[in-house]
Amino acid sequence: MRLVWRKPFKAEERARVVAWTCQCRTIVYELCRAAGQSYIRRTAFGKDGQTVHETYRWSFAEANKVWDALLEGQAV
Questions:
Q1: d(Cα 19, Cα 48) in Å, to the nearest integer?
Q2: Are 17 and 31 in contact (CB under 8 A)?
Q3: C-alpha–C-alpha distance, residues 62 and 71, integer Å
Q4: What are the tens digits of pLDDT across the range 41-60?
Q5: Where are the domains of the chain?
Q6: CA-based angle 68:59:2, to the nearest 5?
Q7: Whole-angstrom Cα distance, residue 15 to residue 35?
């Protein structure tokens, strides 16, 4: 499964992070919930700072399926 990553929406800055990957990696993923929907946030840390991208919004159930696929290496 190939995920579409885009620039974050500023309108949804009040998202609740419900799951995340280890902060010890150069790329950290977070499962977020806001306004009745869920999405995945990807933060890449590099020499020039951090770059943040997000997926499209899904229902909670669909986002959980995508999150599981990401953790199992079946989504990028």
A1: 26
A2: yes
A3: 14
A4: 999 999 989 999 999 999 99
A5: 18-48
A6: 50
A7: 8
